[in-house]
C-alpha cells in the first residue's frame, strides 16, 4: 500500500468513527482531528489526489480534508 | 557500609486509627490497636526472638520462640499472635522465658546441620541470629533421627532448596499462598515427618506450579531456600534501592551488591508499588546486564551490508552529526526524526525529544507507546482531561467488583496480579472480558463471576451492550453524573446506548458473548459496590482502541466509579516507563505534560528556556516516518532503546522503511533487529548503570540508581547530550537531577518534583504541584481535570480486518510471565527455560480440522506475510481464534500483523489479524532468509592488533 492509499485509509477511518455525530459535526471533528495529529507532510501528500477529485475518500473525509488543504 | 537486611517487625502493620498505650519491659509506648505485641516491641527497639513470624505474612504462632509474659495473663503467650490491649504490661526477658526459648531453640538446632561457617546464608540467617539471641551454647540431644543429608533440589535456575536445613516454619508456604497467591507449596506429612513440598512428591520446583516469584526465598529464615547467586558469589555487602526496569508495575528493589557485582535483587518492603513482592523478571532476570552479547563500544559502517567497525565515542558522535547535517542539507530538516524509549528514564526520554525539537528543528519524535498505550492517552485525555490512570495500586484493596478487560495481569503485571488475587480471595467479585481464558478466570481459591469470551475486535460492542443494560435497567448513578459530568452529553450517550440494536441480545451474534452472561456482568458491575476497571493492550491495540478506552471511561462515569479508593479506570502499562515516556513529550503533537505543540503559550515557555523557535505543527508518528522513508523523503533516524523492526507491525514494511534511510542510529544494549538496518550503533547503559527516574502505571515517579559503572563508559543521557553538543546545542547537564529540574520548570504536573524530594519521599505520584504538594494517589476526587467528565458516544465500527475463506481464523497476540516484550533482555537469561520458543495456541477443533497434532510445526499466513511456529492445542482459546506471543525474533509474528491501526492514534491492531493455519515442516523461507541476513548484518570487524 503506498502512502497516499494509507492516508486515504486513515482519513476514512477517522471519518467513519466520528460519523455517528452526523455529517456536519463529523466533518468538523474529522478536520480538527487531522489538524491536531497529522504532520503537514501528510496533508501535502494527500493534496494532489484530493485536487483530482478525492476518489476513494468518503464524503465526510473529503470535506474535512478540503477544509484543511484549501484553508 | 555494613550490609543490613531490612528490619523485620515480625507481623504486618495494623491499619487501625485507634491508638493504645502498652508497657513493654517498663517502657510505655503508643501503637495502633490490633498491632501484635511482637511488632509493638520491635517498632520500639526491642526484638523478641522469633522464627515463624515475618512482617510480610499474617502471624502463625507455630515456633513458640516468641513467648512473653503479660501481667494478669496466665502462661506465656506467643507475642506474634497476641494483639496489644490498652494498659497491657509485657515482659520480654525473664529467666523463665530464657529457659523456655533455649529449650525450643535446642530442638531446632539438634536437627540442623552445624555447618554455619560454610553455609551460604552465614551472617544472613535468622536461625543463627536467634540461637545467639536466646543464648544457646550447647545442644544436649544426641545423634537421633534427623533430616540431615536429604538431597538438594537445584532444578530452579535461580534458587536452591536444601531440605536438610528446613525448620518447617512454613513461612515459604504462607508466602506462596498469602503474598504470591500461587499455592504451589505444601507442608506434607505431620510432626517429625513434616516436609516442604512443591506440589506432588515426585515433582521438583521447576516442574511444579511455582512461578519463581521468589517470595518463599525471601521469607525463608534459613538457607533452605537460597538464591544460587548467593551460593556462588557470597552474601552482599551493601544495598541500593532502585526500580525494576521491566514492567509498568514499577517494583522497587534493594540491589544487593558486592563491590560492583550484583548479588541479588531483593524486593523493597517500603516500595509503594510492590510492598516487598516481586516477579521472576525483576527478582531474578537481570543477568542480561552483563551478558556476553552486550555491545560496549560505539560502531559505525557506511552501508548495512558491511561489517561493523568499532570506533571511539568522539568519532561515533562526530560521524552521526555529520551524517545528520548532510541529510538535513540535502533533503531538508524534516527528513530527520527520533524515537524515545519507554525502557529509558524520564530524563533520557526528555532529552531525546528535546534533541529532536530543539536540535533537528522539527517535531518528528515518537515513542514505542505508539504501539501500546497511545489510545489510553487519547481516550482518557478526552473524557477525563488527563492521559493517565486514575488510581494507585493500593486502591484495588477497596474494590468490590474488579473488571479486567484485555489484560492478563498474572503474566503481564504479576506483582499487581498478586494484589488482585488477594482482594479476590477476600471476597471481591471478578469479571473478565477476554477472548482467552486467562489464568485469573480460574485459579486456586479464585473463580471469575463472569468471563465474557468475546470475539476479538468487538470490545466496543460489548462495552456498549453493558452500558445498554445499565442505562435501560435504571442502574446508572445519575446523582454522580449530575454532580460531576456534562448532563447533556450523558443524555445523548444514554439515548445512544439504550437503542435496542445495541442490546446484548442484538449484538450477541457479533460478539459471541451470551447475552445473559453479559447482562449479569453489567448488573454486577453497576450494583456490586466499588467497581474498578483494569485494562491492557487487549483494549488499546485495536482499530477502535481509543473508542474502547472512552467506552470504559463512560462506563466508570455512568456508574459513579471515579474519584475515591476502590474504583477508577486503570491502564496496566506494559513497559516500565510507558507512562513516563508519554508524560515527557515523546509524541509528535505534544510537549511534556500533554500540551499540544500548537499551544503558543506552552511553546513559548520551552522556547524561552531552550533559546530556540519550535515548529508549531505536529511531526510524523513512527508509521508515518516509515511511509515517508519509503517515499524517499525521510532519511535519518535516532532510535533510543527500542526495536521497531521486531515490535512494530508489518515487519516487511518497517524493513523497507529502514532500508530506505541513509543514517539509522541505534542506541541500545544489544545488536537488536533494527540494528540490522543501522549505520551507527551507540552502546546503551542498563538501568543498573544510570541515575534517573521511571514513572509506573499509577503515575508514581520512582528513583533509578546507578549501582555499577556503565560498561560503555556513558549513561544514555550523556550520549544524547554528546550528540546535542556535537550539533552545537551547548547542553551542560552534570547529573540527571538537573534534567528533572528542567522538566519540573516546564511541566505543571511535575512542578513539585525534584531528586531531593524523591529521595526524601521514596516516590511521588504526579500531579505534584501547589494544590497537591505530596502528589496524587487518586485523581479526579472533587472534579475532573478537564472540569466536567465528558461522555463520548463510541459507535462500534468493525475492523476492516475480516476473516473469509482464505483467512478463516483470527490471530490475537499477548505475552507470557517469564519473557518481556521482544525478549531482548529475558531471552538472555535463564528465563528462557520456561519459554524457549513462541507457540501458537489453537483450539482442538481447529487443530483437528487441519490434521495438526500438539507441537507440530504450522504455517501461519495472513495477507501481510507468513511465518511458521509450533502449535499447542488448548481450549483456552475459542474455536476460530488462535493466539501467540512475540518474544522471539525467530517467530517473526509481526510479519503476519497488518498495517491496520487505531483510528485516532495509529496504535497498531496487533490483537486482530485474519489468518490461516496449515501444517508445515519447519521455519518458512522468509524466516530462514531473515536469519541469514540478520547474521550477516551483525558481523563486527575484528579490531586490528596494535
Ligand atoms: S517462588 Fe513464588 S511461586 Fe514459587 S514456590 Fe516460591 S512463593 Fe511460590
Ligand atoms: S523452607 Fe524455609 S521457610 Fe520453608 S519451612 Fe523450611 S525453613 Fe521455613
Ligand atoms: S512485576 Fe514488573 S516491575 Fe515488578 S518485578 Fe515483575 S517485571 Fe519488575
Ligand atoms: S514467632 Fe511467634 S510463634 Fe513463631
What would you say about this model in short?
Chain A is mostly helical. Chain A contains 4 helices and no strands.
Q: How many H/I helical runs of chain B?
A: 29
Give the N-to-C terminal Cα separation of chain B. Answer: 42 Å
Number of domains of chain B: 5
Cofactors, ions, other ligands: iron/sulfur cluster, FE2/S2 (inorganic) cluster
Order of helices and strands of chain A: HHHH
* Main beta sheet of chain A: none
Radius of gyration of chain A: 11 Å
How would you describe this structure to a colleague?
The complex is a heterodimer of chains A (71) and B (946). Helix content of chain A is 77%, strand content 0%. Chain A is an all-alpha fold. Chain A has one domain. The longest helix of chain A is centred in the first third of the chain and has 16 residues, at 3-18. Chain A is globular, with a radius of gyration of 11 Å. In chain B, the strands form ten sheets. Chain B has a seven-stranded mixed β-sheet with strand order 13-12-27-26-25-14-15, covered by helices on one side. Chain B is globular, with a radius of gyration of 29 Å. Chain B has 29 helices and 36 strands. Chain B has 946 residues and is α/β, with parallel strands linked by helices. The A-B interface holds A 1-3, 6, 9-10, 13-14, 16-17, 19-21, 33, 36-42, 45 and B 334, 363-364, 496, 543-544, 547, 588-589, 596, 598, 617-621, 624, 627-628, 630-631, 633, 793, 795, 797, 800, 899, 903-906. The structure holds iron/sulfur cluster (SF4) (3 copies) and FE2/S2 (inorganic) cluster (FES). One iron/sulfur cluster (SF4) is lined by residues 244, 246-247, 249-251, 274, 278-279, 281-283, 413-415 of chain B.
